[in-house]
Design a protein that fits this description.
The complex is a heterodimer of chains A (390) and B (260).
Chain A (H helix, E strand, L loop, with lengths): L1 H32 L5 H5 L1 H9 L8 H16 L4 H10 L3 H10 L8 H8 L6 H9 L7 H5 L3 E3 L5 E3 L7 H32 L2 H16 L2 H11 L5 H8 L13 H25 L4 H8 L4 H29 L3 H6 L7 H9 L5 H25 L8
Antiparallel strand pairs in A: 1-2
Chain B lengths: L1 H28 L16 H7 L2 H34 L5 H13 L2 H15 L5 H24 L5 H8 L4 H30 L2 H6 L7 H10 L5 H25 L6
Helix pairs in contact in B: 1-11, 2-11, 3-6, 3-8, 3-10, 4-6, 6-8, 7-8, 8-11, 10-11
The chains are: A mainly alpha (390), B mainly alpha (260).
Chain lengths: 390, 260
């Protein structure tokens, strides 16, 4: 038994290593980036040490000015000032320029660094800037997580709302939740009749009907989204059909609208709602509705009192799956949506590639994971069998 | 009876919604003109000809096949071994291992992509096909483990003891008793792993190098950056490839190799 246990462990080990090294550790490390604040300590280690010891009142001791000027100059000479400049500029726009100007002047700041720094830029004489630097000395910061919900640390130390024109993330999360909820609701409602009709068919016919659901399920998401992209064009088939039917007179702009995003996402995610609902309905005892009918229940009562409660676990499991997938969606909004239809995933992608900002990418990822995790836990609490396979 | 008729009509309507957009691509891909309308103004195979003579598309197809093939092999081997260990051994922390296995499936792809982008940049794996195969394996291996575990579910350990009591060495007993039993499960998991990798887009977008286009990435570029009607022909061929995978998966399911 002992030897069998070791052999079994050795069989599982390679996969375990892969999952830990190429999934669990990277995800953990990335989420740590959401609160990590290494730039100032890495780039200006001596300045950071002095600032950490400083009590934050008035201006820091003279040596902080000396270290700052010296270390900024050295960092510029070694071309490693970039990450710190980006980190500070993100917290307070304008600091990148100040750092660069100060670093370039470092050679002239060796003597009387305090007076000359303040002469170079009066901001170096303000306690507020030095307190900001002290708060950036690490090792952790709430900067990114706060910013991801439109908050920031105020100069006085409290938490305050960011300026109105910078407040975009709460709207983004609400929009993401709204699109995901709408898509989930539509998928559940559309899936129900398909699952019920298939479950009412004899097994052999139902198997063929199920193939009609599996065909889109197996078709590449990119192929399906491309299909929508073509259908929704101004000169495309959908507009042409609507004009031919006399519904509209002029073609509508459909690409870049919320309608396009929701239609394409429902199309892509619908099979995930149909398959579990069908699996549960197939197992329902057909004698139960008959029993209800013989007791005098009408068609409506049979549906609401018998069919719906009994099929709920399958319907809800499908809905939970759709919501989990929809909340993190990227491709469909990117291809058929407009700027106002982008979801959290698009912003994570933006902070990965267009404007690299690891802290923000990680903070948004953390919140997105929290949303999917909460949805999964809620599904588990509502449905004792969810996530477990019999 | 009217209720059943209404139900049938509603179901047919939804199925039409599911299938029509995909099927509409077929006539569009055969269009003779640049503008895609239904019905097309004329028929031709020009987009297929353009597709098959385009080096970009052929290279993308080659990359897709190489990555999906390598992913299937790696996920098939690692997943099958792990499923055997999980089934036959009494492992402490079995639940934790299964949870770790399920995590990549429910984690939004963009989060996995961000995490691996950061880790691979540090490890020098960013922009390599090997790194891409590792990432695709992480998200497709759970299907292999589930399929093999499902095929082992009805396994009677007495069969192994019987084989041994008849004088079969353990290796032979495994080869002659266990392997034939799990083969449909392994194959079904492999088909699913192949399809997962073949269709994967977001990890590829962030982890592949600037020149390493796979078919989904090439379609995305052709739709988003410069519209190119060749994409309809590519979509049809990709659709037909998916249908082959679906057929394989269904055939294996009928032989007892399904998932779940």
């Amino acid at each position: 038994m002992r030897r069998g246990g070791i052999a079994a462990f050795l069989l599982v080990l390679p996969l375990l290593l892969l999952l830990v090294l190429s999934f669990a550790l990277p995800v953990g490390r990335m989420l740590w980036t959401a609160v990590a604040d290494p730039e100032l300590s890495d780039t200006l280690p001596d300045t950071a040490a002095v600032l950490r010891a400083w009590n934050g009142e008035g201006l820091p001791p003279e040596e902080a000015f000396a270290h700052l000027a010296r270390e900024l100059g050295a960092a510029l000479a070694d071309r490693r000032l970039g990450p710190l400049a980006q980190r500070l500029n993100f917290e307070q726009p304008g600091l990148r320029a100040l750092l660069l100007r100060t670093a370039r002047a470092a050679g002239e700041l060796r003597e009387a660094p305090r007076e000359r720094l303040i002469a170079l830029d009066p901001r170096w004489g303000e306690a507020e800037l030095w307190r900001l630097l002290r708060s950036a000395a690490g090792p952790v910061t709430a900067l990114y997580l706060l910013r991801a919900v439109d908050l920031r640390l105020g100069p006085a130390g409290g938490i305050e709302a960011v300026a109105e024109e910078e407040a975009i993330y709460r709207t983004l999360f609400l929009r993401t939740l709204w699109i995901a909820a709408l898509v989930t609701a539509l998928c559940v409602v559309l899936a129900y009749p398909v699952a019920a009709a298939l479950a009412a068919l004899p097994q052999r016919l139902a198997a063929w009907g199920l193939v009609l659901v599996l065909v889109p399920f197996w078709t590449s998401v990119l192929v399906r989204t491309t299909a929508w992209f073509v259908l929704l064009q101004r000169e495309g088939p959908l507009n042409a059909a609507a004009i031919a039917l006399g519904l509209i007179e002029h073609p509508l702009q459909l690409i870049g609208t919320r309608f396009a995003v929701v239609a394409a996402m429902v199309h892509v995610l619908l099979p995930f709602a149909i398959l579990p609902a069908y699996a549960v309905m197939r197992r329902l005892d057909p004698a139960l509705p008959r029993a209800a009918a013989s007791l005098g229940a009408g068609a409506v009562a049979r549906f609401f009192r018998v069919h719906l409660p009994l099929s709920f676990p399958g319907v809800a499991a499908g809905g939970a799956m759709v919501f989990l997938l929809a909340v993190g969606y990227y491709i469909t909004p990117a291809l058929v949506g407009g700027p106002r239809d982008q979801m959290v995933a698009s912003f994570i992608a933006f902070f990965l590639s267009q404007t690299p900002n690891w802290g923000m990418a990680a903070a948004l990822s953390l919140l997105l994971l929290a949303m999917t995790g909460a949805a999964a836990l809620a599904a588990r609490a509502l449905l004792p069998g969810f996530g477990r396979r019999e | 009876m009217t209720a059943r008729l209404l139900l049938g009509l509603a179901a047919a309507g939804v199925l039409l919604f599911l299938l029509a957009p995909i099927l509409a691509i077929l006539p569009l891909s055969l269009s003779a003109g640049e503008i895609l309308r239904l019905p097309p103004e004329g028929w031709s195979l020009r987009w297929y000809a353009a597709l098959l003579s385009s080096e970009r598309w052929l290279l993308a197809a080659r990359n897709s096949l190489v990555v999906a093939g390598a992913t299937t092999l790696l996920a098939g081997v690692l997943g099958t071994l792990a499923a055997l260990g999980l089934h036959f051994g009494r492992l402490p922390g079995r639940g934790a291992i299964l949870a770790l296995l399920a995590a990549p499936v429910v984690t939004p792809s963009i989060v996995t992509a961000a995490a691996l982008f950061l880790a691979y940049s540090a490890a020098g794996l960013a922009g390599t096909l090997f790194g891409l195969v590792l990432a695709h394996t992480v998200i497709s291996v759970p299907f292999v483990v589930l399929a093999v575990l499902a095929s082992l579910r009805g396994f009677d350990p007495a069969l192994l003891r019987a084989a041994e009591s008849l004088g079969a060495p353990p290796a032979a007993a495994f080869r002659r008793v266990v392997l034939p039993l799990i083969a449909p499960g392994v194959a079904a998991g492999a088909v699913f792993a192949f399809a997962t990798s073949f269709d994967e887009f977001i990890l590829t977008l962030f982890l592949a190098g600037p020149g390493q286009f796979t078919l989904p990435r090439q379609i995305y570029a052709a739709v988003r950056d410069v519209w190119d009607p060749t994409v309809c022909a590519a979509a049809v061929l990709l659709f037909l490839a998916s249908m082959l995978l679906l057929l394989a998966s269904e055939a294996l399911r009928r032989r007892g190799g399904g998932i779940g």
